[in-house]
Amino acid sequence: MRRHVRIGAPGGPGHRAACRDQQVAVAYALALMAYNNVIGAHGWHRRWYTPVNAGAAAASLAVAAASGLTAEDLGLGRGRWLPGRLGSLLAAATAAGWLAAATVPAARPVLDDQRISGLDGRGVAYQTLVRIPVGTAAWEEIAFRGVLQAMLRRVMSEPAAIAVTSGVFGLWHIRPTAGALRVNGLANGTRQEVTRVAAGVAVTAAGGAAFSWLRARSGRLAAPVAMHVALNCGGLAAAWAATRPKRPGQAQTSAGA
Question: Is 246 helix (H, G, I), strand (E, B) or coil?
Fold first, then answer.
């Protein structure tokens, strides 16, 4: 269900409500950026990543309810708990794409990521079944495509709400992008790091726009959640499968060939 932007005469009840909604949306957006770029840098957050982010998701839903947003506004209305046909098709296509990439030798350098080099099978299972679906995909989709996008739709048009939500989503990834560049040795010097972080933020914002479009098009928050899970979990599984060390027997067979 599409919500209309609130309007009203200056000083009237409608105008005051619109001002309050704007203030709530701005405060929430700033809180999100601080959460991931400041709080997320602490060791305790990394250790308790999944339960802390699950708690943050619950807190975001509580804030949304207190601000007057309904389950329908958030894409969580009755009958909308599944991703639907569009969300399922896009998630399946994404997973298939990662599977294809993992089987192509030329794609292996692209999939190389030192952050997963030390993971064993149990670690990959935990990441793909618990940490990413709950601590990353569900949390981020609730925070952005659920709560923030709905807050913004009360004070601006849907295209503008999608643009702002996507921009904040890109800025949310400043610290993680910088960390990934350092771990993988992809930035030499401050200038190069700043340039590549900016590029990463832009790409992430574009991805966020796709998630926001899917949320608006499907009317379901579960659709971008499914897509997000397929993208992140598929990427991790593909990278792990493509780059993990071969067993001695496999290495000898390859050498003999």
Answer: coil
What's CA 215's distance to the chain center, in Å?
13
Give the separation between CA 62 and CA 34, rounded to whole angstroms: 19
Q: Residues 204, 209, 210, 215: is their CA dihedral positive or negative?
A: positive
Q: What pLDDT digit, counting tens, does each position of 148-194 carry?
A: 999 999 999 999 999 999 999 999 999 999 988 888 788 888 889 99
Q: What is the pTM of this model?
A: 0.86
Q: What is the DSSP letter of 257?
A: -
Torsion sign (Cα): 157, 161, 164, 167: negative
Structure tokens at 220: 């379901």
What's at 23, amino acid-wise? Q
Q: 226 is written with which tokens?
A: 């499914």
* Cβ atoms of 241 and 102 closer than 8 Å: yes
CA atoms within 13 A on the CB side of 6: 18
